[in-house]
User: Which sequence fits this backbone?
């Protein structure tokens, strides 16, 4: 099993990163939020991996933290949720947002994940309710540590209305100047996303 890869970022697509590890190029499927956090092409990166072997072939899924990998593994343990849907969930919501939706049994919110209908959303809630608590608060501490500036919630809502995911909106608003108006925050985020 391949536990992690460490090498130079050779490139990326909308769904995967390409890592050059000792002259061998690996395609690693990752959540959009993790792809956005990878260093520039040519710089070194370390990625935790999950290896899937199926009748369709072998696929590597990558994560920048052990917590993200643990949540991915719990999601694929739910009947009807495969690796692609689990990555889609991690691209749509931050781990803390997803855990909060599961804890509050918000199936309507979970059903917004591409590839997840009402039935699968209910199954995710039933299967994961309580099990995410076992991971402890430390699971989400790192992501919650970086907070967007005050007043960013309206700008985030505007970004969601434009079709961006909650995770993309959160990442785009990080580091925005304090005291900026909603319009300035929206412009800042759109520049970062563009």
Assistant:
């Amino acid at each position: 099993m391949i536990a992690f890869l460490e090498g130079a970022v050779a490139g990326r697509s909308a769904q995967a990163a390409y890592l050059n590890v000792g002259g061998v190029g690996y395609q690693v499927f990752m959540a959009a939020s993790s792809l956005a956090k990878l260093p520039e092409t040519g710089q070194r990166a370390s990625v935790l991996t999950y290896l899937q072997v199926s009748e369709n072939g072998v696929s590597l899924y990558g994560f920048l933290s052990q917590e993200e990998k643990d949540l991915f593994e719990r999601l694929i343990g739910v009947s009807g949720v495969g690796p692609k849907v689990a990555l889609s969930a991690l691209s749509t919501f931050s781990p803390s947002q997803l855990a909060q939706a599961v804890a509050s049994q918000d199936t309507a919110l979970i059903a917004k994940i591409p590839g997840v209908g009402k039935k699968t959303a209910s199954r995710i809630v039933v299967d994961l309710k309580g099990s995410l608590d076992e991971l402890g608060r430390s699971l989400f501490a790192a992501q919650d540590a970086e907070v967007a500036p005050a007043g960013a919630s309206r700008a985030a809502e505007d970004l969601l209305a434009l079709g961006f995911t909650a995770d993309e909106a959160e990442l785009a608003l990080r580091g925005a100047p304090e005291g900026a108006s909603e319009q300035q925050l929206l412009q800042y985020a759109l520049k970062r996303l563009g």
The radius of gyration is 17 Å. The beta strands are 4-12, 16-21, 24-29, 44-54, 57-63. Residues 136-148 have pLDDT under 50 and may be disordered.
